[in-house]
């Protein structure tokens, strides 16, 4: 395989390198569902492939005369002794000029415990200990890989259909956009989103909750949004943070990162964060960034 964008098989015919997605994450977080979704979208999916064989799989795909143009590989702790080879394989792919994306499936400890208990199966790393011991060991093992992931999906509160919808939103397009952004409003009192790349705190803006006529509404309401952006610093913050995101987005593109989740928080995730998320998403969309807005905690109070 050459170091450019093509490989040279034995007959010296140049063939395009396949797209590569590596699916990993916590056991019980939905790796199989994510893999099945890509398979349904036409990807060639290999489950539990030893990481040392990933470069070989890519090379075989490159020699398929276009029949295997997109490859997804599921890598997890079931590989045991093979998992340590993943870092070496990733370095090998980079040296060969292969563009790879890592999708990491995350979930809370509570959700994972419930899922393992519901199917009455042990965690693959718990040994003679408890399920939580296996989860802790796996988190430690996957910590570095999670940090390198291009896309982190928290499935703690997602069902199978919602996870498939998230995968479809990221991979179903005919043409891969330069950058996709998810702008997520949330309430700090319900905890930080674990899949956030960037976190914005809107609690410096006066809370519409304390305005009786605005309290029943959300940040989607024009009166609430108008109140939020009439407060000192709100518009300036939106302007300056948008400029900062332009700088960050340019860096993400240079580094090949195609997905970013921006979490915008206020106390309850109902007023300020919702209004700010809507405006921020509109600014990003106007800059050519494909943007999805999610209001995680709206209606939760």
From TrEMBL:
Gene3D superfamilies: P-loop containing nucleotide triphosphate hydrolases. Keywords: ATP-binding, GTP-binding, Nucleotide-binding. The keyword ATP-binding applies. GO terms for molecular function: ATP binding; GTP binding. It comes from the Bacteria. Residues 181-298 form the RapZ C-terminal domain. It holds the Pfam family PapZ_C. ATP binds at residues 25-32. Residues 19-174 form the RapZ-like N-terminal domain. InterPro entries: P-loop_NTPase, RapZ-like, RapZ-like_N, RapZ_C. GTP binds at residues 76-79. HAMAP family: RapZ_like. This is GlmZ(SRNA)-inactivating NTPase. It comes from Streptomyces katrae.
